[in-house]
Amino acid sequence: MRAIPIFAAVASMIGVWIIAFQLSKDPADRLLLAAATSDAQHTDSPKAVGSTCRLIGQHAQTYDCEIVGNPNADRWPEPTAEHAYARSIWDMETATIGGKGERIYFGGGDWGLNQGPVPIWSLYWQKPKEENANIRIAQEQPVYGEAIEFFREIDGRLYVPDIDPKDSWAYGNIYALDNDGWFKYRNLEYAVHVFDVIGFQGAIVASAGVVENGDGFAGLYRSTDNGVSWTRLPVSQGESREAYRYWRMAEFGEGLFVAQSSARNGYWTLDKNLHLQFQDTDLFPDMGDADLRLTVSRAVPFGGDVLYTPKLDRMPINPQLRDFPLAPIYQSNVHFKNWWDKIIAAWSFTHGNLYRLTQNGNVDIVEIPGRPHINDVMIREGVVFVLGTSFNEGSYSAVILSSSDLENWNEVHKIETQAIAYSFEYLDGEWFLGLAADGMTDNNISSGEIIRIYSNVSGAN
Fold it and tell me: What is the three-class DSSP state of 134?
């Protein structure tokens, strides 16, 4: 098969994104996009004027913070709500891929207003790690789609689901990075929206929203050759239409947990025999009459169960933002106008809690000290870490908490930020936060910034 290179250039002075792509309506099992990025290719990323961060928690005397940069401001530079939303760092993933060493990968974008293509970035230390200037943010491979909301490392490869491709909708896309470079797998038939990929029983499973002959329904795909070919798993047409889209997945007992578009109506399980089964359990039982098509944003396995959070990223935490007028481009779109009306009506009912789904089908609400809005969660060596955000007196406070039993929580860091801390990761003994816009009316110039938390005690790192 012929390898097809893809090149990208950024003209940041005028905010223009220039990309030369080979477009195709045909499937491609494995397209080589670009060789692995050289460490010499990096950016000294812009920072928002006047943007700050400040440690305010228990460790404020021994730790400090800095804004590393805002690389997505090259792609979406305008001080508007639309560009602030697209700059948002929806996910961060620490991964060691080939000879590149350990890095944090992240993106951005907006598949509602179709603001792609989207650059992928990697953050890493240019050794030795002794000075702030040694942090580098490299431009990786752009995704020819509208948004990047999730990364997953599987067996030494980094996978990036393409949520909304700019290619023909005949096939869905998944991007992957290994030691040979970036690859594009354009071969998931009719998978217009690919939301997640996960390793399961030596294969890869992808969750998607399918559009076939004008009919929209949920689809789960499986590959036994690392993405070169895919098979859609069988499910009844009526049930898949009702699910609409399959979203986030996680290991669940001996099988998989699979979220659907309307998580208040239930979820799905995939067993070791590859049988999909619907479970009619409301995943957000504390949300009263909230009339929103809520799904799952984060999901991680914990002791055979699943910890998860709701997907509420267009709903503001700051109550003042409810009264701001929608940006003209949103206001002129009937879909978003109706969505915003529902958000306003449901605002008091909805919560950004952490939930636990047990193997016997029960849903528990995990009590978090201070009840922050939980935006991200990870497991490291059996310990749960959550990233929570609150709005207080004109600024946001982000807190990282840890627990090994979901009952006793320890404060790792608490920090004041100018935008919502939506994602976090850990690299070389330090925490990094990715900031995001607070809903559809927030024109926050700090959206998209990367914050580093580091020890200010000499020799601590």
Answer: helix
DSSP states along 87-106: H----EEEEE-GGG-EEEEE
Read off the tokens for 72.
């997505």
CA dihedral (192, 193, 198, 200) in degrees, to 10, reads -50
Residue corresponding to tokens 């805002």: 70
Overall average pLDDT of the 81-95 stretch = 97
């998978």: which residue's tokens?
191
The confidence score (pLDDT) of residue 369 equals 96
Confidence of residue 47 (pLDDT cuts 50, 70, 90): low
Provide the pLDDT confidence category of residue 292 given band limits of 50, 70 and 90. Answer: confident
Any idea which residue has 């007196």 for tokens? 393
CA distance 217 to 240: 5
Determine the pLDDT at residue 8. 33
Architecture of domain 7-455: 6 Propeller (2.120)
Amino acid identity for residue 87 in this structure: R
The residue type of 384 is V
**CB-based contacts of 115: which residues, under 8 Å, 6+ apart?**
76, 82, 83, 85, 86, 109, 146, 147
Burial class (CB in 10 A: 0-12, 13-18, 19+), 252: buried
In this prediction, residue 391 has a pLDDT band, given cuts at 50, 70 and 90, of very high
* Bridge partners (DSSP) listed for residue 118: 143
In degrees and rounded to multiples of 5, residue 338 shows phi and psi of: -65, -40
